[in-house]
Design goal:
Length: about 180
């Protein structure tokens, strides 16, 4: 049964040709985010993206990622937006607020705009854990984010061609609908 379901599943391919990407990268903990960015760019390039298909925007910290990503997504110019950040646990609860609001904001923005926003925000207890995930033991999450951006960009094109997803052809359509229904 699972075999049948799988053979019918729609999936985006990993060809970046013809797609457009934005990457929003946080300057906070840039020692880590620079490495994530480099790996994302690598993934896009290896999949066939030319430099003019990728726009990179910097924000101060992870907390600022959702707003910038939403603005970029709402232009309708991009198939996917990659959000890159690194939040390290400190001695206070600040970490929890930054992590939860960043994740929540990015999810809300992607649902609102209908454009895939790829969550490449490391949330680590230690710098060592972050280093592992930005090129050492844990691979590089930036590279994985690049691949996810391509796959989701292709999937959304496929779904909108099939008539299953209209958000890409009408950026912002979801938010207008929900505003109209608001009491
Ligand atoms: N921003 C990060 O991206 N990572 C962190 O670890 C971090 N810490 O630890 O505070 C952080 N804080 C800044 C925050 O994202 C905002 O830029 C700031 O609060 C201004 O809105």
């Amino acid at each position: 049964m699972a075999g049948n379901a799988q053979s019918k599943a729609e999936r985006g391919n990993l060809d970046a040709a013809g797609l457009r990407f934005a990457i929003v990268v946080s300057q906070f903990n840039s020692f880590i985010t620079d490495r994530l960015l480099a790996a994302s760019l690598d993934a896009l390039k290896q999949a066939g993206a030319r430099p003019d298909q990728v726009e990179v925007v910097e924000v101060p910290g992870a907390f600022e990622l959702p707003l910038a990503a939403k603005q970029l997504a709402a232009t309708g110019k991009f198939d996917s937006v990659i959000c890159i950040g690194c939040v390290l646990r400190g001695e206070t609860s600040h970490y929890d607020y930054v992590c939860s609001e960043t994740a929540r904001g990015i999810q809300l923005a992607q649902l609102d705009t209908g454009i895939p926003l790829i969550f490449c925000v490391l949330t680590c207890d230690t710098l060592e854990q972050a280093i592992d995930r930005a090129g050492l033991k844990g691979g590089n999450k930036g590279y994985e984010a690049g691949l996810a951006a391509i796959e989701m960009g292709q999937l959304m094109r496929k779904l909108s061609t099939n008539g299953a997803g209209s958000a890409r052809s009408k950026p912002g359509a979801r938010s207008k609908r929900s505003t109209r229904n608001r009491k």
